[in-house]
Amino acid sequence: MEDIEDLLVGGGGGVPPGFRLPVAPAVGVKPKHKKKNNNFQDSLKSYTAAKIPGTQTIYMKTFGCSHNQSDSEYMAGQLSAFGYNLTENQDEADLWLINTCTVKSPSQSAMDTLISKCRSAKKPLVVAGCVPQGSRDLKELEGVSIVGVQQIDRVVEVVEETLKGHEVRLLTRKTLPALDLPKVRRNKFVEILPINVGCLGACTYCKTKHARGHLGSYTVDSLIGRVRTVIADGVKEIWLSSEDTGAYGRDIGVNLPILLNSLVAELPSDGSAMLRIGMTNPPYILEHLKEIAEVLRHPSVYSFLHVPVQSGSDTILTAMNREYTVSEFRTVVDTLIELVPGMQIATDIICGFPGETDEDFEQTVNLIKEYQLPQVHISQFYPRPGTPAARMKKVPSNVVKKRSRELTTVFESFTPYVGMEGKIERIWITDIATDGSHLVGHTKGYIQVLVVGPETMLGTSAMVKITSVGRWSVFGEVIEILTENVISGENGVDKIPCSNLNETCCSKESETCACGLTSCREQTEKNNLSVSKDDQKPGDYRSQNLIGWLLRKRKNNSLRKIENDMVSEMEEKQRTSTKVHDWALVDKALLIGIFMSLLTIIAVFLIWN
């Protein structure tokens, strides 16, 4: 199956479908006679009795953040590798697997609804993610198998035992899941790469901390290895995922700039693959702002960062225990905007946090108006059970809703992309728009660009001209599809693409391209003009990319003119040659006619005499 890495067990090959791993004592299979819902479990036993392990169909549903999405992709990869089929159709599934999110009440309510629906359908159920990890004793989870956030590498065991009618709960672990597990990506061009789990904070409203726990970082070497693997698999975007990217490495003696520079060094030199840095809170990047800005300026890193502020009031930030001030948030934003050309920043706001006064809210509105950030995620405060904020005096719900609507109206009045019309931008295309008629690409600043084109353009990079702008995205017209500098050819010979994007015509060993009048060296130099990884001054990247593209277009136009002139000359010679050839035939025909006429005259003369 596509996009599934090889499963390594003890350094060997994969495990065949139907192979059942032994259930370790930590699995904790609970005897059915001790459960209150024996009727439900008995029905599951009869439902699965005739099924062979590893052949059933699994329905998966994921709620929440990109970290959850990555976990689901890893679980799907393992299940597929063991022979299970995946489906989006609930009715045809033999088992449902729900990966949950505990950030907001609506997500958990949606989970509750889905669990009830699964019970009504009498289907076996496994619940994974932050909800069971952080609230294992929920009534809704009674009689349901559970996979903890750090137990995703054992999902096959849980599914097999659940299909037999057992309830399995895997929640406790002291080590991180491996990064080289089999994986089925939702988007084969996008790798969501978790760099750590948990965080160092203790926000009073956050339930995720209860589930993901304290900071646990993957080693730099393990992340480098994963990047190498996914690049070889054809991935074009790598999203670094974390509960707090800025805190990376503080538990293992490294820091975020060390990791980022190590990962950037592994990206293709032609800019065909991009890195997107994940969400980071202000406290842990303040001391690394210049180093992070340098990474964000790199041609293969999106100039985009998600920095949640949550409130424009220091009083509320203190009540939230966010460990920074509004001034420090301003420092982060101002520094990155100053040092990174085209920098785009997203943020989050919580409306109606306990104790928020009209004055506090007004400070938040003024902050958002001041920066007019292109992306602001606005949510109402939801008390999460077991958190300190849940015990605080709440703002009336009607006031919370009013503030949320007011801030949303302010935000939606911004026009962040006005002025982009007519600009030439390089984009990386990785997805299909929800309308089904556009492809989705992103600029260096991670601005969404919608273009029309065939699905074969997915996974490519292109130069586009922005034709119109909307509130949430812009529209573009593809001018040129960019190709990679070096493409692996037959017999290990590296080939360099020619100006004709439909051909790959020359190797490094030859001096002249078969498809044009330029040499391979010149072609390589042209491509290097477009994307360079050499050190450059801040602010030069976008201009040099554009200048390189214009020079390449100018040179291509000159080449096309020369080719056209040569073709015209050859056609003229061919027409002249054809005319000469045609006249020669006429002359021969005339001579033969004259000769035959003379013979006829002579014959007639002889007859008459």
Please explain how this structure is put together.
- The chain crosses the membrane at residues 589-608.
- It comes from Sesamum alatum.
- This is Threonylcarbamoyladenosine tRNA methylthiotransferase.
- There is one protein chain.
- The chain has 609 residues and is of the alpha/beta class.
- 37% of the residues lie in helices and 17% in strands.
- A six-stranded parallel sheet has the order 2-1-3-4-5-6, with helices on both faces.
- α4 (130-134) links the parallel β4 (125-129) and β5.
- α7 (220-232) runs parallel beside α8.
- The chain is globular.
Low-confidence stretches: 1-36, 485-556, 558-563, 573-583
**In one word, what is the shape?**
globular
| Strand proportion | 15-25%
Please give the alpha-carbon distance between the first and last residues: 98 Å
Mean pLDDT: 77
Lateral strand order in the biggest sheet: 2-1-3-4-5-6
The number of distinct β-strands equals 22
The chain-level structural class is alpha/beta
Rounded to an integer in angstroms, the radius of gyration calculated over CA atoms is 32 Å
Count of DSSP H/I helices: 15
What summary fits the major beta sheet?
A: 6 strands, parallel
Helix content: 25-40%
Function: Catalyzes the methylthiolation of N6-threonylcarbamoyladenosine (t(6)A), leading to the formation of 2-methylthio-N6-threonylcarbamoyladenosine (ms(2)t(6)A) at position 37 in tRNAs that read codons beginning with adenine.
Keywords: 4Fe-4S, Iron, Iron-sulfur, Membrane, Metal-binding, S-adenosyl-L-methionine, Transferase, Transmembrane, Transmembrane helix, tRNA processing
Protein name: Threonylcarbamoyladenosine tRNA methylthiotransferase
EC number: 2.8.4.5
